[in-house]
Specification:
This protein has three helices and seven strands. By secondary structure, the protein is α+β, with helices and mostly antiparallel strands. The strands form two sheets. It has a five-stranded antiparallel beta sheet. The longest helix has 19 residues. About 6% of the residues have low confidence. Bound molecules: zinc ion (ZN). Zinc ion binds next to helix 2.
């Protein structure tokens, strides 16, 4: 997920925690691969840890607050996020499962690294509780509200093959699709 304000917020120039690292290519909507349903991770091993570290690096590089493996064309249930002010508290969530969500809803502006330049309001549950494995294979439970709750729901949607623009009207989605296809063509020229 991407925040509109995060584009202009100052970023830490600290040396990255992970190395060696790789910046992965992020798929752009309407790439059909974004609609692939991710499979559960069978074993949390070095391959998954490397994937997660590269995803974190890619997320920071792209000024995002969350990234799902689906977006880098790996169709396994891995999500990374960092909703901290300083962008120094990355979380790895493997095989995340929703345990509970509130009836209370919130509407907030969302953006997505796979839908560059588009920000729009989406309504979500205000609070969620999930469990997920961390990068060491330990089960963690997260109670989240605010931005983190929104980010969790946004990223878990990606793992199910769903992009946030699918919550918008058909008219808006058609416009977004047209705009991004055009931008892609110009890049390829
Ligand atoms: Zn996204």
């Amino acid at each position: 997920m991407r925040l509109f304000i995060s584009q202009t917020s100052p970023r830490t120039a600290k040396k990255r925690q992970y190395s060696p690292m790789a910046i992965l290519t992020i798929l752009s909507y309407p790439d059909p691969r974004l609609h692939t349903v991710a499979k559960p991770v069978a074993v949390v091993d070095d391959r998954i840890r490397t994937l997660a570290a590269d995803m974190i690096e890619t997320m920071y590089e792209s000024k995002g607050v969350g990234l799902a493996a689906t977006q880098v064309n790996v169709h396994e249930r891995v999500v990374v996020m960092d909703v901290s002010e300083e962008h120094n508290q990355p979380l790895v969530m493997i095989n995340p499962e929703l345990l509970w969500k509130s009836d209370e809803r919130i509407k907030g502006e969302e953006g997505c690294l796979s839908v560059p330049g588009v920000f729009d309001n989406v309504e979500r549950a205000a609070q969620v509780r999930i469990q997920a494995l961390d990068e060491h294979g330990n089960m963690q439970t997260y109670e989240a509200d605010g931005l983190m709750a929104v980010c969790i729901q946004h990223e878990m949607d990606h793992l199910m093959g769903k992009v946030f623009v699918e919550y918008l009207s058909l008219l808006k989605r058609t416009r977004i699709r047209g705009k991004l296809v055009k931008a892609q063509r110009e890049l390829e020229r």
